Structure formats: structure tokens, C-alpha cells
């Protein structure tokens, strides 16, 4: 994925907001650590065996833990 595509996730639609808010709005984007995390996540999303393992473990741990706790 191109780094520019990550910025799409950080864009805000300012239509419908008062000009007093839009005039002070500052568009931010992902930092380098976030981009590295997103790139790594994208690569790992194609690992089928890892995804199967996570699904199995999530199903088992779901009996004992909340989703938030399972995700760490």
C-alpha cells in the first residue's frame, strides 16, 4: 500500500460544520511509527495460517475473556 493511501483514513469531512470550526481545523496525518504499523498489519493480513490460528484462539478465549482483553 502506498503511504499516501494511509492519509485517506485521516481525512475529515468538514462540510456542514460552521466556519468558526473549519477555520481553526488542522489536518493531521499518521506518523512514521503508525505507517510502519499499518504496513506490517497489511502484510500479516495475507498470512492465512496466522489468521486461522487467531480465529481459533479468539473463539476459545472468548469463553473466559472479553474481546478487549483477548486483543491485549
Automatic annotation (TrEMBL):
Q: Which GO terms describe its molecular function?
A: protein-L-histidine N-pros-methyltransferase activity
Pfam families, per this entry? DREV
Q: What is this protein called?
A: Uncharacterized protein
Protein source organism: Acanthoscelides obtectus
